[in-house]
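Fold this sequence, please.
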Amino acid sequence: MRATWEEIKNQIGVHLSKNSFSLWISPITFLRKEDHTVTLGCPNKFSRNWVMEHYLDLIQDGLHKAGAGPVDVVLKIEPRKKRPLPPEETTDSKQLVLPNLSTNGSSGNRLLKRDFTFDRFVVGACNEFAFSASKALAQGGPWNYHSLLMLANTGLGKTHLSQAVANWILAQNPHHRVRYVTAEDFTNEMVSSLKSNSIEAFKDKYRRCCDVLLLEEVHFLSGKEKTQLELEHTLDALANDNKKVLFTSALPPKDIPRMSKGLSSRLASGLVTTIGGPDYQTRVKILKNKAAEKGITLSDEIVHFLSASLRRDIRQIESALTCLKAKAELLNARIDIDLARDVVKCLVNKQCSATPENIKQLICKYYKVEPDLLRSKSRKKVHAYPRNIYIYLCRQYTDETLEHIAETINRSHSTVLYASETVEHKMKTDPKIKHQVEFLGKQIQHLNS
């Protein structure tokens, strides 16, 4: 049950900022479950009171979604034991700290997950070339290129491969200076450096003190002219020194709005590869691997049923397995085909019964706009914002293709993908937008019930 609680915490973390999660939710430990009462431990009295006042409903909702049903949550003070790990155990950590880098969140340097390695990546027809190219880049394979651009939608494995490159390089040469950041990290760090008059140190860090640059989510550089210009100079410096560079993006550079021609050409100057949605056979392999990692035993019938039903992305598959395990443990039930159907019903059926037309009517009513304005070329915020929310909800609550969603609002496939990614990103940083989207999502579910 403790492992299940850790997974539930990760699900709760999706709805919070990193600071809020690490400060209030992460320290909470599972103590016991008796009948309809779950007892959790908080490190101190202040933490307990704060969690009870601000996060109790979120915790109860997380337990309910995991299959615990209506339960009473009791919070007790349970100080965490401080036990330093011996040196030989530090290599078993789930995360690998990059050498010579600060782990301060504002520094723009991120942590690597140790389990994001090449041998744990499930290879199929949809990602075989991306896997081979990433491995060749890491190992210095037969291809003569120094940069790689991976294109993929959210949840298809581009971050896994990006970190696998870093993990492999650091395993072979721990002294390599690897910089692993998102485009947003890079931008924020540059702005901070300008404000603190330390821009030269920032330039040195990424140009002269960098052996490998891994830059995620470059599509978020849209419209950031100064950051784009700085990155152009950085990439030129790295290319002159034959340093390795890997980018990931949800969009091809040419389709990223307000992207300079200079940066667009540099991003695509090396090898470009894509990762598609997993086909049926790949989903079977992913399910078996993920189930084994979580300690779940699935019959062939359940594996093939889930593979046929869960077609969106790898995160949907992981969510289904988490729900299966949680329900089995919390309800003391056996994992059978009926339990699998219940999980799939929650994840798929309700969402798939919605239509773009239903969602369009809801959006127009809520934001008080005319349907024709969603299809118009207007870029005014009063029109663009509802349009982006409509796109995001269509992707979440229907099985329509990007192309079809684009047709309903007279837009391109790339525009739809970018709008959806933008809303998803803003939901993590703007509580108001998150609240609106969640409210509209519940309205869609009510329409389908």
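The chain is about 55% helix and 10% strand. Residues 90-275 form a domain with the Rossmann fold fold (CATH 3.40.50.300).
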